[in-house]
Predict the structure.
Amino acid sequence: MKQYLTHNELRLVGKAWEIQSQLRKLSRLDIPLNKLLSPQKTK
């Protein structure tokens, strides 16, 4: 399975069971999707 995370987009590529599993893992992070996709600030 591949996961691409860009500024405005989360793209999951793989078999259906892999994508379901990854979405479950992401939902347990307790981080809103817009925060996950927002650019990281570097110091």
